[in-house]
Each structure stands twice: as structure tokens, then as C-alpha cells.
Design brief:
Elements (H helix, E strand, L loop, with lengths): L2 E4 L2 H11 L4 E4 L5 E2 L7 E2 L5 E2 L2 E2 L4 H13 L2 E4 L5 H15 L8 E4 L7 H8 L7 H28 L10 H17 L4 E10 L5 E9 L2 E2 L8 H12 L3 E13 L7 H12 L3 H13 L15 H15 L34 H4 L4 H17 L4 E11 L5 E12 L29 E13 L8 H11 L7 H10 L3 E4 L2 E4 L1 H13 L6 H15 L5 H18 L5 H11 L1 H4 L20 E5 L5 E5 L8 E3 L5 H6 L6 E6 L2 E8 L2 E6 L11 E3 L11 H8 L3 E5 L6 E7 L2 E6 L9 E4 L5 H4 L2 H15 L10 E5 L6 E7 L2 E6 L2 E4 L11 H15 L9 H13 L2 H12 L1
Parallel strand pairs: 1-2, 1-7, 7-8
Antiparallel strand pairs: 3-6, 4-5, 9-10, 9-15, 10-11, 10-14, 12-13, 12-15, 13-14, 16-17, 18-19, 19-20, 21-22, 22-23, 23-24, 25-26, 26-27, 27-28, 29-30, 30-31, 31-32
Length: about 850
Amino acid sequence: MPVVVVESPAKAKTINKYLGSDYTVLASYGHIRDLPPKNGSVDPDNDFDMIWEVASDSKKHIKAIVDALKEDPNLILATDPDREGEAISWHLEQELNNKRGLKIQSASRVVFNAITKTAVTEAMKNPRSVDAPLVEAYLARRALDYLVGFNLSPVLWRKLPGAKSAGRVQSVTLRLIVEREMEIEAFKNREFWTVKAVLTNARGQSFEARLTTLAGKKLDKFDLADATQAEMAVQAVNSRDLTVQSVEAKPATRNPSPPFMTSTLQQEASRKFGMGAKHCMSVAQRLYEAGLITYMRTDGIDMAPEAVTGARDAISAKFGKEYVPAEPRIYKNKAKNAQEAHECVRPTDMMVSVEDAKIADADQRKLYDLIWKRTLASQMSAARLERTVVEIGSADGQVGLRANGQVMLFDGFLRVYEEGRDDTPDEDDMRLPQIDQGEKTAKQSVDSEQHFTQPPPRYTEATLVKRMEELGIGRPSTYASIVTTIQDRGYVEKDRNRLIPQDKGRLVTAFLSNYFHRYVEYDFTADLENQLDAVSAGDADYKKVLERFWRDFSAAIAETADLRIGEVLDKINEVLEPHLFPPTEDGTDPRLCPNCGEGRLSMRTARSGGAFIGCSQYPECRYTRPFGPPDPEAEASAIPPDGKLLGEDQGDEIRIFKGRFGPYVQRGAATEETPKPPRQSVPAAWEPEALTLEEGVRLLALPRLIGTHPEDGVNVWANIGRYGPYIKHADTTSHKGGTNANLEELEDVWTVGMNRAVQLLAEKVASRGGRGKAAVPIRELGEHPQAGGPVNIYDGKYGPYVKWEKINATIPDTVEPADLTLAQAIDLIDERAAKSGKKVTKKKAAPKKAPTKKAATKKPAAKKKAPAKKSAD
């Protein structure tokens, strides 16, 4: 039985149903390998050689495919019909060809745009080889993203506090959001007024008209600038008799929108259901794998001829022949990317409505119904309307009003579907009564209304994707991941579906716009996308694209080597000044320190990472406020540098401070006799600015002695640690030694009893499986380049850390462990060694010992025999 490989088990199950027992259908579970997240995975100095690493989770899936191919060495790669799908097939073919003892007799590639029996069986009759240009386009994109991420991110870490990482397309998308927010902040609204009248025709029917002419002149938007002018306009209308001067009715048609492609599907799902781009694509993926819709990552809006015929038949059957136009509607657009020039997103069977499909999941039902209606509507007759414009005026020509409206003569496609809109409906949507030219109108009411011009709206995921598409940034397969990534990094926050840049995102954008301006330009990014499209079409050499990019990009990176952090901060202060230091109402200098009245406020870095606004007179003046524009209310409740007094208890002052590791309460002041007075961290769930004296005293009473353990008489304590509430079984209350067990709720610290404590401690000991087990690294980075010995990443009690020999160095919160390189790890180890007084020295006489070590490592026979055993299986 030939072995068919697809990406997902759901897709495998559907295809297996169509192919039957003549084929073995297995899933790769997505990409089986990727570039290791370390330096050297892409080597620009060696013709952009790329090193690939099989994911640990993928090894068992590859083994299942290898075992199946030993039974039948015919491989059919049936992954998705796009660049990513082609890349998955290429990786599989490469990896399987490298397997010892496995000889693949034939390897073919098949593609289908829909998972239906007809599409799958037809694809099996037309196999081809893996498309080299599509794979090269994938390799180019992957290399570019790696080179930007692994070269630009370290620059951010060194020069910019709180920055996590930067991406080739994500940084440009972030710039869009930040610049829109700056437009909103710089926007100055302008007042204007409108006048509307409710009039009655000769038959007593009312309708609304707006003032368009005053004093014989056509009104412009801002002609009525204030309430006085608006009131004068109202009086002018009220003081005159009004007559219908003309009634003009014109026929009009509305044509349907084209069927969905990826971007328009994401936009409409956002508008109508509030679905994020990532969630929308996840739901669509499940519909595709179930065989209900065609492939959902596409730039195309055309439909196959048989699909058009199916849609017309479904329209006739469900709505009547009058809803079927005389000729089929043909939609064409020039796809930006040859590898994504598929059909539109449409149902595989036009006759199957959402009721017929019997879909259990609510989101899948909504999305399928949306796709089905949009597809049918795209092939339906136009809606026929009659649009009417009525001009009303006074005999002296001083006052003129206009009423607009429309009448639906035939609903056409609107019977099924109407596209969502981001703006408000206009006046043309109103329906007017019968109005005749020359008839007099009576005034029911004449009112003025105040308006203000509005700033541009914040982006939603839908409007952001639309803007990215307009600029040529990203492609269908990347929209969702780009929007998700900038949110996951904390650069952007979504509030009521609107994307709001966070201060961290502003900092990154300001830095990149000043020091890497070219690489966040919209035109540059769009042009690079076009070059990659040319690669996928076979019209360009991907390594030449990489060479051109790397030549200039590496030079830009080198230029930042000598940048001082102070210089960077000065530049960012200048760029973000309108945001950080907006003009004051009284006209005083917004950067003048409100505490000392002499210092100048600017952005500063904190030792623990992050940024804040501080005074230039530090340490004499310790004024600080959070990074961002001034917030008087927040500053009033903020904790000052010298602490905030909560009150007194037993003759001691109880104060709350903000320390390096967060807020804490303290009893009394530090003195020579008591250099370290009693302190206790404030739990993360509590609001420090709202902490009361009672709560502070309660915290300072910790740790709480629960009692002695009934088995050994050792004390059991309850306390709050850096990572939450816990109990400790030890004679001492320090963090060292003994057994700790977490508590579920903060309140348990003051209420947990001995019986529950004993149970929790016993469960912790049982789950630990005994003492003495060696810790297992979560990542191995390699050997220390100077001193030798492995450098690994471990997951510790207080978070991930780097370990070399006996030196442990905490990984900063701003760095993802998966992104940490060996060079960065060595820097952390050196810094930690310097603080602890240890020295990292080069190994002595390493050359003399090397041969002995090599002999020792090669000596065991088992290592030589292992490959032979595997190949014999």
C-alpha cells in the first residue's frame, strides 16, 4: 500500500476515507524540522547554508512513516497546496532520503484545493515532483526571518530596555499601529454644526431633510462653526415657507462582492463575529480538513467553472430563477504570489447549506454559513434600487434643504448576504414617502446638532489585515501569525477588538525607525515580498535575494556597535517627546521635574529591566513615574521612592516601598542596630497603591507557624514566596532546605491547618519521586568556548537559568529561553561569575589532553555498533 503523508490527523482521516484500504495515510503533524534557535543555523559566509534540526515531537511521527515505507517504498506527499505545504513535503523527502536502510522506490507530490473524493482521486492521477521554486521561496523567507531575528534582537536587548525581539514583517506591522496611535494623539478636533428639519408632505407623511443652502450659498462642512451660527440657520429655516423644487428619481444597481480570499474572510469574520485572524484561520482549517470548504489560504477570487455552475444551480433551486443572472459572474485578480494563486474560499458543495452540513461546533457553523452565503451571493443577480433626491427651498432662494432616500425594487443578492461595514450607513439608505414637485411642506421641527471631527480609528485585526494587504506587507499564510506575535510579545494589546500599542511597542518602533529605518519602511518590505514572489515563480535566484539583503543589513547592524545606551535614550526621548511629555495646560515646561523644580525629566532604564521617567538630578531628587504620559491620579496614589506611610503598629511605622523585585512592606526604619528591619513582599494579586495598614501588619506577621509535624516533630510554616503561597516543613523559615509545597489560594496562608499541610507535603514528596535525581536541561547550548564544559538551560524554581560548572545565571524576563544563544549565555555566566567573585579561566594544556579524550570517547564498541543495529532492523 503506497504511503500518503499529510499534515494533520484530521486531514489524514478524511483522505483515508476517500482512498480506502489501498493506501496507508499518515500525518506528519506539521513541519518535522526547523532551524535550531542558535547562532550559525544560517551561515551567510558559506553561501547561506542552513542547518536543520528534527523536532523531538516529530521523531515518533517520522518513525511511523519509515516503518510504513519499509512495507511499501512508494511515497506520496499530499500536504497543503501552498508554500508551507510544499516546504513540509520537501523536508519530509529530504529527511526520509537520509534514513539509513530505507530505500524509497518513488516519491511524488500531489495537490488538491479541496478535500473531496473527486479532488483527491483526481490529484492521485496527476502526481508531480516537489516544486523547487516554491521551496526556494520558503527557504528565502525562513533565512530572512532568521537573519533579522538573530541579529537585530540582540541589538535590542543590549541597547533598549524591556525589548524582547524584532521580526522582519512584525516590526513593520507594529509601526503601522504605533503611527496610527500617534495620529490619534496629535489629532485636534474641530467643531461644526448641522441643521436638520422634519418636514410633512401634502399627505401628512413626514420625512427628514438637511440644510444645504444658507443665504443663497451652498454650505460647506465647517460653515456653521458654533452654536450661534447654527441657531441663526435654524431661525432662517423657521422664518420661511418651504416648497418642493425638484424630485429626481434614478434607477441604480448594487452588485455583489466577490467570493472570499484569505484577507477578506478574516476581515468579515472580525466585523460580524469578532473573530481574531488566528481564530478565524483555525476554524477555517477544520472546515477544510472536514472537506466542507476549499483551501483557505489564498489570494485568488476566481472560481472553477464547475463551482460556478454548482452555485447557479443552488441559487435557482433555493431562491428561484429570477435570482440567477443571465451570464455567470467572472471574478479575476492578479495574485501577488504565484504559489497562492488558488481558487477563492468557497464551499465544496454549493447545495449544502449550514443546516444540511450538520456542523456541531458553533464557530464552524457561523464561519461556514458566512462562506456559503458570500459564495452564492457572488453569483446572484444585482439588487435593483431607485434612488431619489428631493430639493426643497424658499421662494427667495435664501434657504435650501435636501432629502435623500432609496426604494428597493428587487433585492437580488441582498436576499442572501450583505457585506459588513466599518462605517455608519449614509442617508441614501432611508426610505422616502411619495413627494411631488411643487407641493408645499410643513415644518414639524427644525433642530441643530453639534459635531466634532473624529480622529482616525484604531486598527482592528480586520482593518489591520486590510491595510497590510493594501501595502503589500505579508501574505495570506502570514497575516494571522503576524498579528498574534506582536500581541504575544506585549507590544500591542487588544481592547474591545481595537489594537492599542503599549509603551514597549512604542520603544521598539522608535528605536527601529531611527537606527534601522530602511527595514521598517513599507515600500522596502513590500518590495522584498515581491522579490520573494519572483523566487516562487521561478524568476529569481533566492540566494541572490539573500545576498543583497544581507550586505546592507549586516552593515546597518555593524553601525550600531558603538552606540551608547545614553545616546539611544536621548534619541528616543526626542522622538517620543509628544507622547511622554505632552504640553501642559498652563504652558510650563512639561519636562520640568515637579518634585525639585530644577531637574529635567527623561526616559531612564531600570536595573531590573524596563523603563521609567526620572529626574536628571538623581540621586539628589528621586522623583519617578511610570513610562508613558503623565497621569496625575496615578501619581497621587503612587508609592514615592522613600516609601508610603500606611500607619503605626506597636510604636513602629509601617511603610510600603517599591523594590527591585516588586513592592514590599517594612516595619520600622533601617538603623545601625537593625540594618534589615522586618519586610514582606506584597502579593501580586494585591494592589500596592491601595494597601491598608491592617493588610500590611498581616503580611509582616508571616511566616505563620502552623505547628509541628506529627511524624517527626519538625516545624511546618505557611508563607508567601516570590511565586505565591506555600508551606514549608523545616526547622528554619529560610528558603534553603526542607520540603516546600504550594498552596492553591493566597488566603490559605492564614487558614491552612496541620492535617491539610501534612497531606500537601506528602503529595509533594510522592510527586518528586525521591531525592537525588539529576536535573534535565531543557536546552543544550554547547561547550564553553574558552573554558570547556557544557552550557545548558534549566527550568528552575525561580524561572529558567543558564548553568556552566557551578555557576548558575538567571535568564532575564526580557529574553525567551528558546531564543538565547551560546554567546549570550556566556555573557550571563561571566556577569554572574564577576558578581560572585569567581573566575572563568581557560583550560590549561588543552591541546595535550585532547588526543586522550578523543580516544576515550571513541573507545567503547557500542557506539560503533549502534548504527549497524538500527540499519538491520
